[in-house]
Write a structure and sequence with these properties.
Blueprint: H1 3-17, E1 26-32, E2 38-44, E3 55-61, E4 65-71, E5 74-82, E6 85-93, E7 99-105, E8 111-114
Parallel strand pairs: 1-7
Antiparallel strand pairs: 1-4, 2-3, 2-5, 5-6, 7-8
């Protein structure tokens, strides 16, 4: 049974590489100023930076709400979708990075990456400045 400890070590290594217990290095914050429900999806690199065991996830978020999602290091592709509009962001974060990205969905459904200063505390409660 000498094989059993080796298999256990390999399982721990694989789980660690696909995100189990990884620190959160990238946070995307979405402010939805529209009353329509949107969707947030992300795709992470797989095992050892390959497509093997790649993770693809999708979550809905409500209208007039703030949504946040954090993920670990590596190259991540995020997509924010509302109706027929979408915005894709690709972020490459090292293990030592701590990155924040901000996305604003305007009342008309337009989606753009913005500076933190344009993110409202309570979406739909006031007029939000339009990004240039």
């Amino acid at each position: 049974m000498r094989l059993l400890p080796g298999v256990a070590a390999l399982v721990v290594l694989v789980v660690g590489c696909i995100g189990g217990g990884s620190p959160h290095n990238v946070t995307i914050e979405v402010a939805n100023e529209s009353s329509t429900t949107g969707a947030f999806s992300w795709q992470s690199q797989g095992l050892f930076g390959t497509g093997l065991l790649r993770s693809t996830e999708r979550e809905p978020f409500g209208g007039c709400a703030i949504y946040q999602r954090s993920v670990g290091p590596g190259q991540q592709t995020f997509t924010v979708t509302l109706g027929t509009q979408s915005l894709a962001l690709t972020v490459d974060a090292a293990a030592t990075d701590d990155l924040m990205r901000y996305v604003l969905i305007r009342p008309d459904g337009g989606i753009s990456e913005v500076d933190q200063s344009l993110i409202p505390e309570r979406p739909c409660d006031s007029e939000t400045p339009t990004p240039d």
